[in-house]
Amino acid sequence: GSFGRPADHPAAQRVREGETLLGQAARSRRILSTTNVPPTYLISSSLGAATPASLIVLPILVEDQVLGVIELATFTSFTPVHRDFLGRLMETIGVNVSTIVANARTDELLEESQRLTGELQARSEQLQVQQEELQRSNEELEEKAALLATQNRDIETKNLEIEQARQELEDRAQQLSLASKYKSEFLANMSHELRTPLNSLLILAQLLSQNPSRNLTPKQVEYAGIIHSAGSDLLQLINDILDLSKVEAGKMDINLERVSLKALLAYVEASFRPLTTQKGLDFEISTAPGVPVDLLTDDARLQQILRNLLSNAVKFTEKGRVRVEIRPATAAELPAELQDAGSVVAFKVTDTGIGIAEEQLEVIFAAFQQADGTTSRKYGGTGLGLSITREIARLLGGAVTATSTPGVGSTFTLYLPVTRPEEAPEANLPAKPALEAKHPEALQEGDADAADTTEERGARRLLVIEARANGLLSLVAESAASELAAGRAPIDPAAEQVEVLTAVSATEAATMLAQAPFHCVVLDLAAGAEALSFLRALAGDTALASLPVLAHDNRRVTGELKEEVDRHASGQRLEVLASLDELRERITLHLSVDRLNDVLPLVRTESAPADLAHPDASLADKSVLVVDD
Prior knowledge:
By secondary structure, this protein is α/β, with parallel strands linked by helices. Helix content is 47%, strand content 16%.
């Protein structure tokens, strides 16, 4: 800064140490003075400007540190007093300047500290927020971890419950299957036992009602007729129960043959025209164009279905008409199970009877069920006819549907394929002649030929291919194998055990078949793609062409799998079985022989033939009435 210097004075604003008097005073830390100042040095004011007489330069020192330099000029000379005063003044000025500089630095540091403190506080707040967010995240993660642990425990518990339920269901299924088998066998046996004396009663009642000796009164003849009528109703009930037990046991035989529709209609006309005439009902039979001349089906079972439907129509119709219409079925009206059946014929039985409520249309097809309790009392019957009708229709590859309006009438329609569906269960094909099995004890020493043809027995192996290991078919196979082994042990203690192996894929099955010989293969068609792959692989292996394959199908196969099954059914030893009981029976038959890959025909007989070589002596000289169904 300056005082009393002209504004336009060209003096330098910055001076280095050692330069000019100012720089020399700062370097030497001493007071420098001079007189006879050149005229260019000026002191100015508002009144004018003049050259000073004397000049002095004073360094500002604080603790031997130069803080600045003060340059003074005067019009008179500086006296020693002036110099001493200025020297002392420089000390005070130095302290003040040092204080000012220190205070300024302190202020700068304070501002910097405050700025840093603010930044630190802001960062601290950010860190606090981040810490709180991190803490919340940790809490959420802990909650999720606890929830996952709880869910895992729940899943494990549910898996255990599901496994227990599955095991219980399998146990109950086995128990139900066994109970159903025992029930069916009991019904069949009881039906046979009841029919024998009942047929004798009917024959005798018929003889009495005819009164050939004319020694009975009209009332006695009437009583005999009532006995015969009631006995006939009872016989029909027993026959229905027997049919139902056969269907449930999968033992009802289906004999396929060409059935003439003309002959079938003649049977219907002859059987029901008298009944409708007796009740005063109109009876119509019509055949639409396009109906085939004959059908490939079971004549007796088809007659039984029509007989049941027409009997109900006549029974529940008091006035009006009963109509039978035979026509080609359209694709739109076919039930879902017959969409791929090809040409289908519809047998439509329509009446103007009492009708059935819509909610009862499914109930009437259950065994021992009728539309309501009043019909059983007013019209009679057991409720078995429609149940048997639907099951027989299913065995024939067809279906039965019903529509009805109470007070208007009912329509029952039988849909039957023109040709037998190839995927129908083997259990429903005609029975073939049975082979007489030779037990080991039947091979006597003299029967050399038979002994020569019997190969040395090896391990009996059965391969089961299904969607999962130890499934239902494996249980059936193991049960059959256990019973077979238990039955052979008393006869042949050296008989080997049966080994049941399970494959869950076509690749695994092919590997097992390549490693060891098997007596037969049980294939679950419900395995879908794996079953299809196995059949295709089997078709390309000539070494396995004679391997028996028992295919279980609890539903009708479709698509590529159906085509493959059809192809194998004609060229491969493939049997398609719908009944687990029959599958069990076929497994037992295949494993009961001593020769690997021995051919066993499909045998279905309700009972073994009676041993007539040794008749009971108690029957000698007695008349015996034999009744066979």
